[in-house]
Amino acid sequence: MLRALASEVRPREVWAWSMYDFANSGYTTVVITAVFGAYFVSVVTDNQPWATFAWTAALSVSYALILVTGPLVGAWADTHAAKKRLLLVSTIGCVLFTALLWFAGPGEAALALALVALSNYFFGVGENLIAAFLPELADSRAMGRVSGWGWSFGYLGGLAALGICLAYITASGLPAAHTVPVTMLITAAFFAIAATPTFMFLRERALPQPRIEDPWQRVKSTLRHSRTFVDLRRFLLCIVFYQAGISAVVALAAIYAEQAMKFTMRETITLILVVNVTAALGAFGFGYLQDAIGHVRSIALTLAGWIAMVLIAFFSEDRASFWVAANLAGLCMGSSQAAGRALVGYLAPASRLAEFFGLWGLAVKAASIFGPLTYGAVTWIFAGNHRLGILATGLYFVLGLVTLSGLDVERGRRAALSA
Fold it and tell me: Would you say residue 109 has pLDDT above 80?
């Protein structure tokens, strides 16, 4: 393990870094994927035809805000060596607005959408910042491995948070209108407690940089000189495409299971619990595979898996085949996200890590705007046809696979080192 880490980095610090993935995955798993999205459609809005589109629109607003502010936050963090301080602020914001979802009961659609947008905004800012620590912790030859450790540990966090919520829902025996608000409090507390080791043990190694230019000018300079990093730029475009499909699956998995496959909430939560185990295995295993066979081949393999998943889900008529599709999605989700983060770290200049991970966040959040919106718009236009929604989002994985071809990783690495 030590050989995978940068010099002077102790295993405890990598564990503390991974604990943030463990903590924030509870938010995405419970609030975005498994519980609150389906609850919003079926209970808060009482299955109104616009509900799925409204849910995706609220998420898209939050992603648009992250898209605009993410690179600026990263540039400011680099200038002031303040990644950890800003991470604390984003964590507090996400925990607070998640807890306030307790008030979003039946008929409170506007309140629910506002709180989801705010909590998801702070989650996204924190996701960018914690990712920027990766190149400081890992040896450049082991980015995939260390990223995979964090991401797989993160899925275990989602599994733990969702398991606690399922245990509460099962033990209470109460309807969703009573139990789901309490799960929001559970999720907020889980995030706060699990993230504590990150702030105790993770070091800020960056040094303040000369304040020659303000954050706006830094970002403009990065974009203006992006031609120097042609392979990083191409991969960011690839991320935009395939992450659009992933974000749609994450935001709408529970809604698809309940609306298209007629799962109950308990069955949906059980499914996603199992999928989190599969995702953790995918993130962990593919991290080693990525270091062994190369970044491009491993990411291409996961995108092919995503395309197969979409086709299986589209044609699924029974629950057994949908379970196959869902677990294939979990395997590909863990591997593709961990692999993408590692490759950005490999291609980014060492002196501007937070800023370039801000651009990574920009690509991810741009995808997260139109990916779920595509699904939501299709279901609204075609009278709630969720099968067409999932098929439409599958096109993004095809575009990602096409864009990935021609990427020269070692040329991109040389450009990063020369910068």
Answer: yes
